[in-house]
Specification:
The structure is a homotrimer of 224-residue chains. With 224 residues, chain A is mainly alpha-helical. Chain A has one domain. The first copy, chain A, has nine helices and no strands. In chain A, helix 1 packs parallel to helix 3, helix 2 packs antiparallel against helix 3 and helix 6 packs antiparallel against helix 9. The first copy, chain A, is globular. The N and C termini of chain A lie far apart (67 Å). Chains in contact: A-B, A-C, B-C. The interface between B and C is medium-sized, with 36 and 32 residues.
């Protein structure tokens, strides 16, 4: 495959993922009745927060989001769009209509997939090619860190800790890529691993897969 | 203007801001019925947390608060004072009497202003003179990061995401300074930009300015 | 004392502390009805989160947990054990039976003690032998940072800010070691300081010591 073409495709998927992540943050901010500043902050944090935590762990100063402001700016634009929709048609935001769209789920899954493999790539490029544990960890952090930050800023328990197959899809993709990048072409590895994440996510969403809960939600201690 | 004199004035404003920020953190800790340790932690985190996040983003290790412990010590002293007041006269703390004082608002605004421009300065000194996006971002983080940390430690949604014109005042000051520091004398730029923040904050407090909310607080979905 | 023997003892205490911390995180995750991923994340974050924050402050990239994955793996194993217990006998988890065991309290106190002095040691080794403020600060962060992260991820106010003598025991041990490491043998200093933390913790647990609260829990403003 032509490298320039692969680079362009990856950039496009990154941009799609950035926007999808920003939308999910901005919608939660609007639902919490935040002001325009809060909507922008939650949108941008969700979109670039995972990469920011990754870069701090890897010692990349300043984090990459400050060298390519394009991602943060796109996220801010997408968040502003959510703000405008919320002002004119609040019921679209309140009723979770955006998050329930299958298109949104698809784009969000693409973001999760591409961010997970890019996280692994960043660890390799930062000189940690021999530390698969670190690569997988920062891969998952790149994928789900923004969502964790979003929920903590919104004053909630991070949904990724209790909700369906999301972080585990990221984990499978990051682990797959960390294991196979040495043996096959980098671009093929990235696309295969990211596609694996997307497929797991979409299957999980379609068939309501959930990881087993430690204690079922409706379990109550016996009254003796 | 004499440089030494300007340095002294900035140091004084920094100390005033540190104490005002520590007071706001310690009061919230006391209201949450924390113990003496919690009051000190919230006071110190509010006062120096913004600068600490800034230094981690910029790769300044260890963060500046550890090289000049004077700020953390002053913040701890101010927090201890709040603790003593809470022990002897809890109603002063519970009824928000401190935060409602116009003197407190004035000192807090001075802190917000000076921290925002110092954040921009720190980014420039750390070698990022050509990255206005980074400068403005860490300027705002220096100004409001401590308050965000305070609210997250207190288990609340950060008030800066939904409350009146606070972060946006910091943004205007940081952006003004980041834009003009190349063209005018550094001290003049710092004082002008910090003063802009103070004026916006005081006007916002006096006239109850608020940024537009994404969805009004009393908006309810129609029952059809 | 033989250095190798001392090293081995410290490693054993570290492993015990890691497991005890992981248990406390995993139990809280199970109580919040998180899934297997959430249980593992909270367990691992509680066990290695304090050291991770310390390394980010000290500029150690990547944090030590990624160079010796053994700690994170042990924490994950202990968390998985909690998950299995929660699946088969939820009442053990829900009723706080693990945290109420004196054995658990003892192991947790050992972890708090050893992590606090190891934090001081890490700061010294990172080149900050002349900054006692930084040493004590990162000592306490290493001891209690994981628990703070655990509570923030669980959507709660960090218990360390309001609960009995925990962070203050860590503070006494870190300060003792930071003051005396120059004058006495390193291993003697570490064991004495860590033992001080354990003794303070156990006495505090036995006699229900509490730091004074800023405002008593049952204090209500007078209705006039």
């Amino acid at each position: 495959m032509n490298t320039n073409f692969a680079d362009t495709v990856i950039l496009c998927i990154e941009i799609i993922g950035t926007i999808a992540f920003a939308l999910s943050g901005a919608v939660i901010a609007a639902q919490r009745r935040m002001d325009i500043f809060g909507v922008l902050v939650l949108g941008v944090c969700t979109a670039v927060g995972g990469g920011c935590i990754r870069d701090i762990i890897l010692g990349i100063n300043p984090p990459n989001m400050f060298r390519n402001p394009i991602y943060a700016l796109l996220a801010a634009l997408a968040s502003f769009l959510v703000f405008c929709v919320a002002r004119s048609a609040p019921e679209i935001i309140i009723t979770n209509r955006i998050q329930n769209m299958s298109l949104f789920n698809f784009l969000d899954a693409m973001g999760l997939g591409i961010f997970s493999v890019i996280g692994v790539n960043t660890a390799i490029d930062a000189g940690f090619a021999d530390n698969a544990f670190l690569q997988i960890f920062v891969g998952v952090i790149t994928g789900v860190g923004g969502g964790i930050l979003r929920d903590m800023l919104a004053g909630e328990m991070p949904s990724v800790l209790k909700r369906d197959v999301y972080a585990s899809a990221s984990f499978v993709g990051a682990a797959l890529y960390a294991c196979c990048y040495q043996f096959i072409n980098q671009w093929v590895g990235m696309f295969l691993s990211a596609a694996t994440v997307v497929i797991i996510r979409l299957l999980a969403a379609k068939f309501y897969w959930n990881l087993p809960s430690a204690i079922p939600k409706d379990w109550m201690p016996r009254q003796d």
